[in-house]
Amino acid sequence: MEFLLILLAVVAIAAVAAGPALRRRRARAELLGAGPAGGPGAAAAAHGFLPPEQLDVRLPGPDPELLSAVDEARRSQDWKPAAELLSRTHDAEQRWQRVQTLAGAAVRELAEAPGTGGLWLRHWRVVAPEDAGGAAVQAEFLVQQALRDPSSKDYRMILEEARTVCTEAARLAPEDVVPLIVELGVARGMGAAEAEFQSVWERVASRAPQHMGAHLAALRYWSAKWHGSREQADAFAQRAAASAAKGSLLPALPLFAVHDHLPDVNLVQGLYRSEVVTRAVEAAQFAALHAPSDHPVLPHVRHLLVWFLVNAERYPEALEQLRRVDGHIGAVPWSYEADPVAAYTAYRAVAMAGGESQGPANRWL
């Protein structure tokens, strides 16, 4: 009984703390329904944003060639466009993202149609067993499939198979860092000891020291949600940021570490304007501003910035980021939500309403 009373008190305090901010956001969002234009959809269109039904949850940013290959595999079970695309994808960041997306497409298809979904990937591996791209996609597919249900009796067996396929993919393409990055996911899922994980990470870092995708994969191991702690994750992220080369996205890594360790219930009204969060946000803004505009992982950074900037009520800055990512929402934090489209459009609506009242951004792009 005493525990229940304490819990109720915590919830009540949280509601009081969050109330003013929620009321401000609700008031601004309600502005979208005013006027003859008639509602949020019209307001979004006026800003040049896409309607919810046109938002693509598969990718964080545009990659028409990749989406064409994914659509063809789903439609006709033809894996050859995907294989051909990977064969000419030499940028390590882009290759990592394309392998992830192809594997994720196969995982979703299998979930929709158990036993038959994603047959194109199995055909790919049977028909072209020496194709390095197919091996990398299969390894990532196995990791994603295992992590969908860690309670499964086949969980460790699937991850062991993924490790074997990672070794095979590395043999087929010794210069490719992607199989090593996939192996980071295997080690995390298997609960590898810190020394073992560090050994895998050092192999990755020696091959691609500025690879943002690799750092995001490694950061998850050090998170308190997996095998580390807030302090370990922050230390890893800060070391990476300090080692960033010109144009690198690594200065944005601490923002991902902060996001991983936010409290489930926010009792601090100014949390998103605190020194720690502000410093991480501004480092990410700096990274986004100076990274190549076509960096494959840049949309991931911009999406997370939208989330933090809206929560900090820095709406004009959030709108500047939204204008660069709208259309594709397959990124954290939306991918953590049961309905990514609803979550994204809600934040977008708040940013639009708040931006109208605050005026244009004048600090960062």
Q: Overview of this structure, please?
A:
The protein contains 17 helices and no strands. With 365 residues, it is an all-alpha fold. Helix 14 runs antiparallel to helix 15 (298-311).
Question: What are the SSEs and their pairings?
Answer:
Blueprint: H1 2-30, H2 40-46, H3 64-76, H4 80-87, H5 92-112, H6 119-127, H7 132-148, H8 155-172, H9 178-190, H10 194-207, H11 212-222, H12 230-242, H13 253-260, H14 275-290, H15 298-311, H16 315-325, H17 340-358
Mean pLDDT: 89
What separation lies between the terminal Cα atoms? 52 Å
Biggest sheet architecture: none
Helix content: 55-70%
Task: Describe what is shown at a glance.
The chain has about 375 residues and is mainly α.
Defining key terms:
single chain, 365 residues, mainly alpha, 17 helices, 66% helix, disordered N terminus
